Amino acid sequence: MSTLKLLLFLFALSIVSCSNETYExxxxxxxxxxxxxxxxxxxxxxxxxxxxxxRTSPDIPxxxxxxxxxxxxxxxxxxxxxxxxxxxTAALGTMNTLLVNGSLSKTSTSLEYTGSLDLQVDLPxxxxxxxxxxxxxxxxxxxxxxxxxxxxxxxxxxDIQGTAIPIEINxxxxxxxxxxxxxxxxxxxxxxxxxxxxxxxxxxxxxTITILGISQxxxxxxxxxxxxxxxxxxxxxxxxxxETTQGYELSxxxxxxxxxxxxxxxxxxVQTVGVEELNSxxxx
Length: 284
Known about the structure:
There is one protein chain. This protein has a 12-stranded antiparallel sheet. The chain has one domain (2-16, 25-278). The chain contains 3 helices and 12 strands, in the order H-E-E-E-H-E-E-E-E-E-E-E-E-H-E. It is mainly beta.
């Protein structure tokens, strides 16, 4: 039973004003004739953004927290750049975690990300998938249009208390344009030229366990959306808000197996809600 209980734990998601009005009007021009040319992703050394971060969980109160992310440009070579956060330590927010774990490149109409897929999941695996050219912004896309669509799988063998448990993780990652607002209110402030998009991660996890000498495949997490991020970029500012829902529900199959072993103190599902809200910024 201890092996199954630890396996359950390993798959629990730990999931996870001042401003300067001197802006660059160079890249990522809006193509909508009703808007003026603007840049959605300032990337000059010295640019920084400070976010208020909050996460709440109705299931596990210990996961609740509030904090601050200080995001800034770490390197910049023309249209390719990277971020760092909190003086090189980990980001608290989910969207900021994604941004600092890779590099970004922009054109006159798009923003793309290449880097690790950090699920903020406590999984002792040897490698995480690398995502290449994940499109976060496309100014030429229509509302509701899918910007990027990736799917893949990878296998690992977990060594848990001397027991090798093969697992396979299948995932699908998509980004979509949701809307464009000439003006709107976010974080209690009015912004212009808001680009709204979403990122969705779907996973399934299966494992192979041995009971009484017989190996069998078992669903641990059936296909489900474990992370959805709705994010907003404002013209001449950058990311101004991200709203994240993360969670999981164990399969009936593994829940029944655990209950049959006599375990009653179970966490069979977890959900967390997070918000990253721009508090202050400076862009050159």
